[in-house]
Write a structure and sequence with these properties.
The structure is a homodimer. By secondary structure, chain A is of the alpha/beta class. Chain A has 21 helices and eleven strands. In chain A, about 50% of the residues lie in helices and about 10% in strands. In chain A, strand 8, helix 15 and strand 9 (about 260-265) form a beta-alpha-beta unit.
């Protein structure tokens, strides 16, 4: 007996789990994924409700269906409408020094949620996970966690409402107690069913899921949420993290905790197309926040899969196939102005805009995002990292 | 596929692992165990060497072969002879409030080692393990850990050389880093081979072995052994704990650590005989440190399996079978005076002493041990527990 991969996904030739995202030529079938995972679709009524409750326009990731699925997000909104609070939890596995734009997506969205709902946020840096999965030393994992913290802080989080922690530094105490409680509720067969481990996998992998589960429970953070053990938690994440939280939601009531709610995003596609996501292990699949203006424009021109026609003549005659066009997908993520986006899609679709022009536009948009990020990151000092990562109360966390 | 128990032990109808000790009618075959586990026999020359190096008579547990096996104990003695130091590690799973005399055996021996070699000692209270295996709450496990700490302190440990810690309180930081390093070196198949887990066992059980492994490494205790990362460790324990440390010794060089050495004891037999050990789940199998004088004498008279003959006449004629006689086994553990013990064995063996007389002697000896322990424990305050359990440097730990 070797690898026991989740069955349904194998039959569909579509593999989506926290360590692998791959699909056939048609790209990832997100509809199928929602059905397989048993989560819910994020509909227009819910998005309208977010706008109404927060008094802000919904984030472009919501308007454009990039965050497209959820679990019990409506319950969070019900509570919020009644004047109750919740907290946010998201995270990052620090496997590389430089982030790419796909890595920024959940943090951009989380920042919007923090601002809109005025709620505290915990950010888990799973340096232990990266030590367990990658061939890194403990010290290198911890160093990458701090470097990644700087990129996260550069997204503009409020230090008065945000606690960033590395597992190696923070695990212990109440957090560790919750880990052990979760572990007692989950059998080996169960984690194999959810995550597809093999018997030759090391026990660190098998025992890691509780570590990612427990930030969902306020009792894991007594310095933040003492006396608020029933506070609800909302987790913005990409849909490949759903297996962790399916497990978490299953265990929660058995240890007297509330189930976390989720809002789940699509993946940021690789430059090569939708069949996989931007990957740190293939530098040409992604735009990094450390890429120069030239490099960004070169990558877009050279690698971004185009839905345009092979010649200018054909393009003018037939127009581009927007369904598979990567520049359009990226503009969808990163171009804020809805009107501009519509104009580009219209012109490109009817053939009046050529691929080269659209790629040039995209290069400008991406470089603008990277430039803004680089400037913000340069302002982040070691002292700021220490401030965000200190285990401390957040006196004004709901303010 | 269900339970995968270690094969060799099953064939022999003798099961010895950290959770189960059972054997056929003949009692546990310790010789076979040494061969199966691949540890070494503790011979007379080594015991003489301990006496010579420490300038003290060897403990009765050594003189009488109750600590009978080891792993690389000779290497520890080699180093000590050259003027190098080591530290001691032992532990207890706090599954019950009251200890029995069998529980005291490793602590009595460890106290002797600490006094004789003048070395620091770490004592792990695995309250997390007991939470994972028994149906206890976290708070109850932590409470039992503190109660057991009082019984351990009552054995006379030196607060200037001893650090007692509960996993729930102490795990984190360097200790947690070592846990994760060990976990990365051990596959699921490996822990199944060593411990016999089933696929229906929860992942807490599967991931626990690293927790018991890492106190073997000085780097797990930076507040004690900073800059002494290659300090050797000696673990006094009962032989059923050998599987944990076989695993630990296998992993140690792969993460740049020294292998711990071991001295391993026989089990304290149940009152009913050698085929199992004293068990907290069967109160009549053991003498508790909380038992009254009457209860001790009643238990000895009623339950201690006798090798004496059925009638006084037969006993006078044939004498007792000392090989299976539990009172003699217990006197072997707890009667300090070698000469007295020989006299009793001689008289009982040749029929001049009757079972009733030997049981009366044993009752007196055991009550004396319990009385001494009870008095010492009554002196242990909450403040003393806090002092032993504070994560602090031990300024005079080798003094």
């Amino acid at each position: 007996m070797t690898v026991v991969a989740p069955k349904v996904e194998k039959e569909e030739e579509q593999v989506v789990n926290p360590w692998e995202v791959s699909a056939g030529k048609g790209g990832i079938d997100y509809d199928k994924l929602v059905d397989q995972f048993g989560c819910q679709r994020l509909d227009a009524a819910t998005i309208d409700r977010v706008a109404r409750l927060t008094g802000r326009p919904p984030h472009r990731f919501l308007r454009r269906g990039l965050f497209f699925a959820h679990r019990d997000f409506n319950e969070i909104l019900d509570l919020y409408e009644k004047g109750e609070k919740f907290y946010l939890y998201t995270g990052r596995g620090p496997s590389s020094e430089a982030l790419h734009l796909g890595h920024l997506v959940p943090f951009m969205f989380t920042k919007y949620l923090q601002d809109a709902f005025k709620v505290p946020l915990v950010i888990q840096l799973t340096d232990d996970e990266k030590f367990l999965w990658k061939n890194l030393t403990v010290n290198e994992s911890k160093r990458l966690a701090r470097e990644n913290a700087k990129d996260i802080i550069a997204c503009g989080f409020d230090v008065e409402k945000t606690f960033i922690f590395s597992d190696f530094n923070f695990v212990g105490g109440a957090f560790y107690e919750n880990m052990v409680k979760v572990a007692r509720c989950v059998t080996y067969n169960k984690v194999v069913g959810i995550f597809g481990f093999s018997q030759e996998d090391h026990i660190g992998k098998i025992s890691f899921p509780p570590v990612q589960a427990v930030p969902s429970f306020p009792s894991s953070f007594p310095h933040l949420f003492s006396g608020m053990e029933q506070l609800r938690c909302l987790i913005p994440c990409a849909i490949d993290q759903d297996p962790y939280f399916r497990m978490t939601r299953d265990v929660a009531p058995r240890i007297g905790c509330q189930k976390p709610s989720l809002t789940e995003s699509r993946f940021s596609p690789a430059l090569q197309g939708e069949s996989t996501k931007m990957s740190a292990s293939d530098p040409n699949s992604a735009i990094y926040v450390t890429d120069s203006e030239e490099k960004i424009k070169m990558k877009v021109n050279k690698y971004a899969f185009s839905g345009g026609q092979d010649s200018a003549e054909l393009q003018r005659e037939l127009g581009a196939n927007l369904e598979v066009d990567v520049p359009i997908k990226y503009l969808n993520f990163f171009l804020e102005d809805d009107h501009d986006l519509e104009q580009i899609k219209k012109g490109y679709g009817d053939g009046s805009l050529l691929t080269g022009k659209v790629k040039n536009l995209l290069g400008d948009v991406l470089y603008e995002v990277v430039k803004r990020h680089t400037r913000a990151r340069a302002q982040v000092t070691e002292e700021m990292v220490d401030a965000f990562m200190a285990a401390r109360p957040l006196p004004n966390m709901f303010g």
